[in-house]
């Protein structure tokens, strides 16, 4: 998948916004949104929040995990743990990127938050890479991948499946099926 | 036996391979008559020792001007021919190991597979090795072992190159062709992820089929008017 396709999927995540207009409930295939009351927080999908924000119709309330201290704590936890730790959102990287690019002036310390998200991502990606390497070297056939987000899984595709495919073929060669046994025809 | 005529037809096949490589690693699950990598891999020469006399084929041996091939003659033949000679009953020729799969070369690969220039040894090193093992040579298990271990060790490097550089790494020339396909596929993903991280998402394009369908509809409408 292309990262922009993952982004599209991630836009279904919900965030809180404070609208500055009144509107009745909007009925969408994915569920109802609203009703909108000026000044009262409401939960909407990310794509709608971004659109409303672009038209100056709302203020986005950043999710509570999008905060320097919380992200630092997550990073420390990630570093300490041998396995992957649970992320606050299935699409933390995408949601953070989208919201941070939309709300330049609503959130204080935005640069620090950006750095913290990137650090967290880097720690997890390097952990993923080394675990992929150990997985291949140990010759395992299955692995448990708890708490990996879609974007992270997407980053090792199609490398990992291709490599496993190839190793499987190499191993099968030893079974030594005769290639063309003309004498049996 | 008749593989060579096919090469001129390979355009279509290669396109197919290119199209399919996106999610599944396109290769023959041998035997596949139309697989281009397979044909190229089986061009590699292997030493053969003839066990029966073959009439009128003396021209295959460049070192002699006799009309027949005598028992015990050693000739290097392409693998596709050798495998047929070997699988006849009784076998016409015995197939030995080419030097890149002999013990001395296997030891080099065992010592450090990462630095070896596989492309120089044989462009289709793994494919060739796999085909060779199908002849049930007594050292086949050993060869498969070396192939699998080499690939596992080299994979880390492919992973690193694919995810960490926007330009093609010059050392990737040392990769065998199968490894190259994996590397290229990884590199495309790596660079699109990098682009996304630095510049954000782009517009999602409609699939090629959908676009073509739209065009067809448009032209049909034009024709009607």
UniProtKB/TrEMBL annotation, chain A:
GINS subunit domain span: 65-166
Keyword Secreted: no
Location of this chain's protein in the cell: Nucleus
GO CC field: CMG complex; GINS complex
Coiled-coil positions: none
Sorted UniProt keywords: DNA replication, Nucleus
InterPro entries, A to Z: GINS_A, GINS_bundle-like_dom_sf, GINS_Psf2, PSF2_N
Domain DNA replication complex GINS protein PSF2 N-terminal: 2-61
Principal location class: nucleus
Pfam entry (one): PSF2_N
Gene Ontology BP term (one): double-strand break repair via break-induced replication
Keyword Nucleus included in the entry's annotation: yes
CDD domains (alphabetical): GINS_A_psf2, GINS_B_Psf2
Family the UniProt entry places it in: Belongs to the GINS2/PSF2 family.
Subunit structure and binding partners: Component of the GINS complex.
Protein name stated in the entry: DNA replication complex GINS protein PSF2
Organism: Thrips palmi
Taxonomic lineage of the native organism: Eukaryota, Metazoa, Ecdysozoa, Arthropoda, Hexapoda
Record gene name: LOC117651563
TrEMBL record, chain B:
Annotated GO biological process: mitotic DNA replication initiation
Cellular compartment(s): Nucleus
Domain GINS subunit: 101-193
Cross-referenced CDD domains: GINS_A_psf3, GINS_B_Psf3
Family affiliation: Belongs to the GINS3/PSF3 family.
Description of how the protein assembles with itself and partners: Component of the GINS complex.
Name used for this protein in its record: DNA replication complex GINS protein PSF3
Origin species: Thrips palmi (Melon thrips)
Gene: LOC117647799
């Amino acid at each position: 998948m292309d990262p922009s396709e993952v982004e599209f999927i991630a836009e279904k995540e919900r965030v809180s916004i404070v609208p500055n207009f009144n509107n009745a409930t909007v009925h969408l295939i994915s569920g109802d949104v609203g009703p909108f009351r000026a000044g009262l927080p409401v939960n909407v999908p990310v794509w709608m929040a971004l659109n409303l924000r672009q038209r100056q119709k709302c203020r986005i309330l950043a999710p509570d995990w999008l905060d320097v201290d919380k992200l630092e704590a997550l990073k420390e936890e990630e570093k300490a743990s041998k396995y992957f730790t649970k992320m606050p959102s299935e699409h933390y990287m995408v949601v953070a990127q989208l919201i941070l690019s939309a709300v330049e002036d609503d959130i204080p310390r935005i640069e620090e938050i950006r750095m913290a998200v990137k650090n967290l991502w880097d720690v997890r990606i390097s952990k993923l890479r080394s675990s992929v390497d150990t997985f291949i070297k140990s010759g395992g056939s299955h692995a448990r991948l708890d708490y990996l987000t879609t974007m992270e899984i997407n980053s090792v595709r199609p490398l990992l499946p291709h490599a496993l495919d190839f190793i499987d073929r190499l191993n099968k060669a030893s079974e030594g099926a005769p290639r063309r046994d003309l004498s049996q025809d | 036996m008749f593989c060579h005529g096919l090469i001129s037809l390979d355009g279509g096949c290669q396109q197919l391979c290119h199209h399919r490589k996106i999610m599944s690693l396109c290769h023959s699950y041998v035997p596949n008559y139309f697989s281009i990598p397979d044909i190229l891999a089986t061009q590699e020469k292997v030493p053969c020792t003839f066990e029966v006399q073959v009439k009128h084929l003396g021209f295959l041996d460049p070192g002699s001007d006799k009309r027949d091939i005598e028992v015990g003659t050693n000739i290097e033949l392409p693998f596709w021919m050798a495998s047929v000679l070997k699988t006849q009953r009784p076998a016409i020729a015995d197939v030995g190991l080419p030097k890149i799969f002999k013990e001395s070369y296997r030891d080099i690969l065992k010592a450090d597979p990462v630095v070896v220039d596989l492309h120089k040894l044989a462009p289709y090193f793994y494919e060739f090795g796999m085909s060779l093992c199908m002849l049930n040579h007594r050292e086949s298990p050993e060869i498969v072992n070396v192939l699998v271990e080499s690939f596992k060790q080299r994979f880390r490097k492919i992973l690193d190159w694919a995810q960490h550089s926007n330009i093609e790494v010059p050392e990737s020339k040392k990769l065998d062709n199968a490894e190259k396909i994996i590397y290229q596929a990884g590199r495309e993903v790596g660079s699109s992820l990098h682009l996304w991280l630095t510049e954000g998402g782009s517009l999602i394009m409609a699939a090629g089929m959908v676009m073509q369908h739209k065009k067809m509809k448009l032209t049909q409408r034009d024709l009607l008017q």
